[in-house]
Amino acid sequence: MRALRVVGLDDDGTSVICEDPVRGERYTIPCDERLRAAARGDAARLGQIAAETETQMRPREIQARIRAGESVEQVATAAGLPVHRVERFAYPVLLERSRTAELAQRAHPIREDGPDVQTLGEIIAHSFGLRGQDYSCGEWDSWRGEDGKWIIQLHWQAGRSDNRAHWAFHPGAHGGTVTAIDDHAIDLLDPSPSRPLRTVRPVTELARQALELEHTDLGQHPADHAVPAAEPQVAEPSPEPPAAKQEQPPAPEITDPEPEQPPAPAAQAPQPEQHSRKAEAPPRRGKKNHPIVPSWEDVLLGVRSQR
Fold first, then answer.
1. 69-78, 170-179, 221-230: lowest mean pLDDT where?
2. pLDDT tens digits along 42-63
3. Tag placement on the chain: N or C end, fewer CB within 10 Å?
4. How many structural domains compose the chain?
5. Domain range spanning residue 182?
6. Are the C-beta atoms of residues 46 and 38 closer than 8 Å to each other?
7. Residue 254 lies in a domain
C-alpha cells in the first residue's frame, strides 16, 4: 500500500488533493462525513456510516421503531442486520423508555374527583399485597403510541395466566398523571370496589316465640305452612323402539333347466325264460270274519275240509 501526501484543497474546497511522492501523481478525495470521522479518529461514527450504506433503514428509523415499542431483535430481523449493530442505535432509546416507566410509577392516577393522593406505584403495591402476589416480580415498560403519548405497561404472572395492564402517562408537575386504558388497569387501581357482605345473625328464642304468636293470632300454625315434601316421581319406562323389520333375503332367480337329451337305448340283454306258475288260490272264507269250526267228521277222521 502506497502512502500519499496531502497537498491541499481544490479550488471549490470540496475535495482534498493528495500526491504520490514517488511517482508525483496526484489524487483527489471528497471531503465527506466519512473523511471527517476518519480524521478525528471516530471509529463509532465510521461504523454508523457503514451501516447506513449497507441497509436502507437509517439509524433514525431504527430509533423510531424502538421508541414505538419494538424490541431490538424485531428491528434487526426487519432491517436484515446483526443484533449488535442495532443495539448501538437502540441503547439510548431503551434508556429513555426505562426512565419514562420509572417516572410513571410516581404519577397520580386520575379519579372521578381528580388526581389521587397516592402514586401509581403505591396503589399497585397495595393491590398486589391484597391478592397475595409479589410486587417486585412485575415488569414495567413504556413506549410512544401513534398519537405521541407515552403508554405504560405492567406485566406480571398469576399462576399460569399472563397479565398486562396499560395506562396513558401525561408528564407534568408533581409527577404527572396516569389514566387507565384496559380492565386490568382499572382493577389494580380499585382493588376493593364492592363492600363486604353483611353478616346475618341466627334466629334467637325470643324471635321464634314472636313468630309463633303472630301465626297464632292469624289462626294459623307455623307447621301449617310447611311445604309438603315432593313425592318421588317414578320414571315411566320409555317405550321400546319398534323392532326393525327383518329384511327378507331376495328370492333366488328361477332359471329354466336345459332339456336333457335322452340316453341312447341300450341293447336289451336276453332274459331267461320264466315258467309261469299258477299261484295257489287262498282258501275261501265266509263272508263274515268268524273262525271256521271244523266239523265232527273232520275231527274224527283227522282231516281238514276245504270250505
1. 221-230
2. 888 877 777 666 556 788 999 9
3. N
4. 1
5. 106-189
6. yes
7. no
